[in-house]
Write a sequence for this structure.
């Protein structure tokens, strides 16, 4: 029996899509334990004219790099297909749910 909130893995467009209960859909191009790797992939995506960002996974163990966040499932699926067809990110996938806080970036010294 599958309980609500469990992560379910299923195949779609010859790739993987993660589904979890929730209203937000993210097209993920990478997941890293090391913060520096998430920064690097975010920059690489930017060089390909993809507006990428990253946030912590729900349990805070991974930095997910994503190129789309939407509440429209069909838009996420179309965007995923386009990313796979036109970029080097052929193993992109969809996360559905709520990501943790956006990873903290160093913005300089704290105000006094």
């Amino acid at each position: 029996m599958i309980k609500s909130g469990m992560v379910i893995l299923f195949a779609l467009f010859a790739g993987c899509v993660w589904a979890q209960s929730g209203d937000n859909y993210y097209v993920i191009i990478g997941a890293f334990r090391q913060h520096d790797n998430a920064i690097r992939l975010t920059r690489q995506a930017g060089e390909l004219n993809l507006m990428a960002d990253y946030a912590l996974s729900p349990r805070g163990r991974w930095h997910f790099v994503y190129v789309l966040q939407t509440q429209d499932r069909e838009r996420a699926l179309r965007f995923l297909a386009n990313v796979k067809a036109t970029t080097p990110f052929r193993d992109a996938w969809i996360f559905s749910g709520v990501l943790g806080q956006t990873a903290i970036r160093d913005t300089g010294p704290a105000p006094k």
About this structure: The chain has a mean pLDDT of 78. The chain has two helices and six strands. Residues 73-86 form the longest helix (14 residues).
